[in-house]
UniProtKB/TrEMBL annotation:
Region listing for Disordered, in residue ranges: 1-59
Protein name, per record: CsbD-like
Domain CsbD-like stretches: 7-58
Membrane-spanning segments: none
Protein family: Belongs to the UPF0337 (CsbD) family.
Domain of life: Bacteria
């Protein structure tokens, strides 16, 4: 099982990656890339929250 810190870091990374993809998709009028960015951001938020929960449960 991943540590809470690793989950939070990966979550932040996915959110950042998603933000870049979404902005690039908007700038290039690429709806597919924009949608991928939104999915990556949502995945990152979920993973970050998972890290928060693991931290609370481990205490």
């Amino acid at each position: 099982m991943k540590s809470s810190t690793q989950d939070k870091a990966e979550g932040k990374w996915d959110q950042a990656k998603g933000k870049v993809k979404e902005a690039t998709g908007k700038a290039t009028n690429n709806a597919e890339m924009e949608a991928e960015g939104k999915v990556d951001k949502a995945k990152g938020k979920t993973q970050e929250k998972t890290g928060d929960v693991k931290k609370v449960v481990d205490k």
